Amino acid sequence: MVNFVGRRQELAALERELQKVAAGAGGERPGRCVMLRGRRRVGKSRLVERFVERSGVPFLFFAATGASPGNDLARLARDAQASTLPLARLVAAARPESWDAAFDVLAAALPADRASVLVIDEVPYLVDADGAFEGMLQRAWDRVLETKPVLLVLIGSDLSMMEALNTYGRPFHQRGREMVLGPLNPAEVGRMLGLEPAEAFDAALVTGGLPLICAEWPHGAGLWDFLDEALNDPVSALLVSAERSLAAEFPPQAQARTVLAAIGSGERTFTNIARAAGGSGPHHCSARWSCSRRSGSSPRSCPCPRGRRRTDATGWRTPTCGSGCTFWAPPWRRSSGDGAI
Q: Which DSSP string do the residues of 177-225 spell out, in sequence order?
């Protein structure tokens, strides 16, 4: 089993936030909020688990499932029973039927005389179309949660949605401090895999620093030994992660070999790579990039038959044009009509 390694700066940042909460206990508004985002499988949940385990303070760790509001509220009650909050039984006994009521009960269960941590994982699963959850979260934070010495940690893998939660005009604007978790750096990869510096750089480049892939690298093994094993295993994390990344960003008919061949032949833009790989590139409306700078209709009501809502870990946006046609643009294509990779 691979031990937890690295993330010293991130752990230190969370510890500083908790210290500020503890220092403000007894004050008017000692509560603080951290909004942690990062791509899937980069280790966000494990980082926060490690943090709360070593913090020594009461905590509740809740992970949303996205099944339905009722199921998530029932899961909250079960997670509360397994938490270390001294009054966690209040959440299970109350059986709240809405998040508005759940936040009130959670606030009552949090200690008033010492610091605690409340973690809500997979926040994007809870965000609804009309923004009701964001409004309830904002009300609960302003009215009750911030008055308690609690560190609220909101975690999400939908990069664009988590970033949007803290933007101007949204209910939770400027109430949380944003924190982005990236992949493991070469030094952390080297310590995790028992490799020398040069080999650690190779491993970081091959694995992308993703803990999921690094966990399958035999301790101390060389690059080619790992590749020989991973590439011959159809369910290895290296192959599965690569296939899903390509499937998320290129047309279904594009094959991994043709995509890599296009990149190797010198193509450097998304559209040209997709075209060389057998597709026609991403769908654009007639207004092309200018429409991303306008305020259009909701992507959920887009009349275009090719428009489809997508909120995955790739960090893609869903801008809309004046006519309501939704098209897809990844973050690295925000400033030009055909951004380079």
A: EEEE--PPPHHHHHHHHT--HHHHHHHHHHHTT-HHHHTTSPTT--HHH
